[in-house]
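Q: What does the predicted 3D structure of TorF family putative porin look like?
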Amino acid sequence: MLTSIRGVLAATALTGALIAATPAFADETDPPKDVTITGNVAFVTDYRFRGLSLSGGDMAVQGGINVNHSSGFYVGVWGSNLEQDALDIYGNSEIDVFGGWTGEVTPGLTADVGLLMYVYPSGSFGKGNVLEPYASLSTTMGPVSAKVGMAYAWKQDSLGGDDNLYVYTDLGVAIPETPLSLSAHVGYTSGALSPNLLTAKSTDGGFDYSVGATASVTKNLSVGVSYVGVDGNSINSFSNDAVVGTVKLSF
């Protein structure tokens, strides 16, 4: 429990530093600028990554900042506290550093391609870090949105000398004339991070899925709840099915 509290405090400090470092935003009446900065802070009851809990079933504090250029190029950073692992490879915090490009490739179809690095600064630095390119295509038709994507991490020492492939699809629908939106997600992992492998069930790939709802409280504040499930042996506070609540502030 002490480790979890330390992790929350560390993530809270990180998020506060990110917010403090963010320049003041321009008034909404100002003309568009080439560079815009967006960010968010969230409290989640469980940090689930591709169906698996990385916070030991405990609350996590998360936050991120994106710097976006009008050309479509962007860079960003996102952080969360973790459950301290026994081997101290990952420590109690995760920082994701990423950059890429997003834009419309054909009318109604948006692409997003980039490279993400998972960094674990409080663990055995370097032993857990992973580089992972990603790509996705998304579209919106009225209140309905859809995305398909993939992320591939080539063979790396931090993955036990193996590689990993993740493919997924997301669906969303905004309920007209209400602050509510519904979402669904299905993903499949093959390789070093397969939930079947990580829960000692088999060496096969495995699915994760979730369904959820989000309500906008204000322009910047939202609350949500989702049901998360994943293949593999059910291990409490790791791979068991869970209901996850979220409170998120965007700025």
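A (community wiki): The structure tokens above were generated from the sequence. The two ends are 31 Å apart (CA to CA). The chain has one domain: 2-250.
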